[in-house]
Automatic annotation (TrEMBL):
Species for this entry: Multifurca ochricompacta
Highest taxon of the lineage: Eukaryota
Compositionally biased spans, kind Low complexity: 1-12
Disordered as annotated region, ranges: 1-23
Sequence ranges assigned to domain BTB in this UniProt record: 58-129
Name of this protein: BTB domain-containing protein
Length: 376
């Protein structure tokens, strides 16, 4: 399988146009009318039929690398107008046949085309139970954009929206379900690397995937992001473009400034609520319990300088949620939770944290320089 962000090696010959666009798909991903090999060329030796996706009543051979699939013209044409036009072109004057069927020659890997045909015949859900379902969705998103298969494009995009969502609620749910990206091996959490998602989103014009993927990258050390990533499955090397790397670093700096401001305004200088229970206590020490709790939380967050210990300052959304988590344990009379304020102060702090997290999330597209229509 190929999950690379590189463009197809084919270039326009000036004879045929590109496929109908699902969106403003970048020129690199569009495939020109490849069809059959040029007249006089040979298919070469070693070509084999893929029995798992070949039908005896198939009336066209789809050739990819050294494998071919016997499938149905009408079915492919119904799924994609662009494929239908390719098929009509080669069937009007076939120059090459396999098992007596005209050949539709596609430039993708045979494994990728196998996935594409499986998803078209059996539905996307038939592949989503596999352990590598998100990698498969990434491949199919690229191919469905390339061949203008609109329903498959939308279905696979919805699959990728789950780990890289547009809403904070879905991001929070994702974080509860998945282990956190660590600073050494993002691929260990069974997701495609965020760099590959950014590159893929650029290729197929799906900008709504980019802010969450960029934020994922913010939680890695900048040096690791700049160095790029080598996929252990196929040894393909990926890196962000220079412009995207600059956007990432600018967004990371904006996120860091937001978090610093949050600490100063909402924790370090926070006053107790007007209805604070502890401020009415006779004991002066008890009157300072809530403000003391805010200061302890501040110190707890600031201990993680640059996110190298727990990753909090490299992950402001997690850090702001941790403010509430530190206060969640009610403690016992023998062992009071020093981070816990009274009910009134805790309720006001909860509202402040939720408002800050929402504002932070809403700001991600602007910080990363990405225009997203429906965000938040």
């Amino acid at each position: 399988m190929s999950l690379g962000s590189s463009a197809s090696p084919l270039s326009s010959n000036g004879h045929h146009g590109g496929p109908p666009q699902l969106r403003a798909v970048s020129p690199e991903i569009r495939v020109t009318r490849h069809g059959t090999p040029p007249p006089g060329s040979s298919l070469g030796s070693g070509i084999q039929r893929r029995p798992s996706l070949s039908f005896e009543d198939g009336n066209i051979a789809v050739l990819a690398e050294k494998s071919y699939f016997l499938v149905h013209r009408g079915f492919l044409s119904r799924q994609s107008e662009y494929l239908g036009e390719l098929i009509r072109d080669i069937c009007s004057c076939p120059t090459t046949t396999l098992e007596g069927r005209p050949v539709l020659h596609l430039p993708d890997s045979s494994d990728d085309i196998s996935l594409l045909l499986h998803s078209m015949y059996d539905g996307l859900s038939s592949l989503m139970s596999l352990e590598s379902n998100l990698r498969i969705a990434s491949i199919l998103l690229r191919l469905s954009a390339r061949y203008a298969i609109e329903h498959l494009f939308n279905e696979t995009l919805a699959v990728l929206h789950k780990p890289w969502p547009t809403s904070l609620a879905h991001w929070t749910r994702r974080e509860r379900q998945l282990p956190r990206v660590n600073t050494k091996s993002a691929q260990e959490i069974s997701l495609p690397h965020p760099i590959t998602i950014v590159n893929l989103a650029r290729e197929v014009d799906a900008p709504e995937l980019i802010p969450a993927a960029f934020y994922d990258l913010c939680r890695l050390l900048p040096s690791l992001v700049a160095a790029g990533y080598t996929d252990p499955f196929n040894s393909t090397y990926y890196r962000l473009t220079t412009s995207d790397l600059v956007l990432l670093l600018q967004g990371r700096e904006a996120a860091s400034r937001f978090f610093s401001t949050f600490i100063v305004n909402e924790l370090e200088n926070r006053r107790a609520s007007d209805t604070c229970f502890n401020r009415r206590q006779q004991d002066p020490a008890k009157r300072r319990l809530c403000t003391g709790a805010f200061q302890l939380i501040t110190f707890e967050l600031l201990q993680d300088v640059n996110g190298l210990i727990t990753g909090r300052t490299a992950d402001p959304l997690l850090a702001m949620q941790d403010v509430l988590n530190l206060q969640a344990d009610p403690g016992t009379p023998e062992a009071r939770n020093m981070f816990r304020a009274c009910d009134a102060c805790r309720q006001e702090l909860t509202m402040s944290v939720h408002a800050a997290r929402n504002k932070f999330w809403d700001s991600l597209p602007e910080w990363f320089g990405v225009e997203v229509t429906n965000w938040g």
